[in-house]
Amino acid sequence: MDLQIKREGEFQYIDEGQGEVLLLLHGLFGALSNWNGVVDHFSKNYRVVIPLMPIYEMALHKAGVPGLVNFVEDFVKFKNLRDLTLLGNSLGGHVALVYSLNNAAKVKRLVLTGSSGLFEDSMGGSFPKRGNYEYVKERVEYTFYSPETATKELVDEVFNITNSNAKCLRIIAIAKSAQRHNMAKDITNIKVPTLLIWGLNDTITPPLVAHEFNRLMENSELYFIDKCGHAPMMEHPERFNSILEKFLDKTSIEQPT
Known about the structure:
38% of the residues lie in helices and 17% in strands. It has a single domain (6-118, 182-250), classed as 3-Layer(aba) Sandwich (Rossmann fold), CATH 3.40.50.1820. It has helices at residues 36-42, 65-79, 91-102, 133-141, 152-162, 165-180, 207-216, 232-235, 237-250, and strands at residues 6-8, 11-16, 21-25, 47-51, 84-89, 107-113, 194-199, 220-225. The protein has an 8-stranded mixed beta sheet, sandwiched between helices. Residues 22-241 form the AB hydrolase-1 domain.
């Protein structure tokens, strides 16, 4: 489906379907299109909302995990959203975790896939070979199990981002903020049903990270997808959606009449 970006106030976002809200948060080099398969499948029965996080535009002194959490808080308030099922990939998972801790009354379920917050090996901390297309291509391919998932369009997008000084400064600041902000002591306080969907071949947040999330979060369940890297919803959308749908059905929220 072609996703239509809505613009309202300072926000750009996707808002498709009706019903219980699935709020999706993309990662550091992510985009709204990362969630195409999820939107297409779930917008038939849910209201799927994806804010475009201001990773490349936010004020430099706010460029970090707390700044992005504040942005999500402002967006949720602006759209008057509640009873959220919060889905986050990579950095988006990290933001979802902090948001859930700060706004427990608003979050009913949590879904993490390739989430940072405990450990990650990302290329966001520095750009030793800026301007080198092959290097960027190699790093984007490293995100996936199947290199062909890294389309030319995706590589071009990341290459253009890395060639902007202003965007690079923000990426580096946010990546360092995420790496400093280890959540091992905090996430034990998250009690909502939590689904962990992980690529068995994730090289950025390896399977060990998923097991650690599962150990620390008492109300969590973990599923691995084989031949899959850091973005399962992109690389294996049908399998991802199947696992997610079963979780949503099992933990269904009764809507007020």
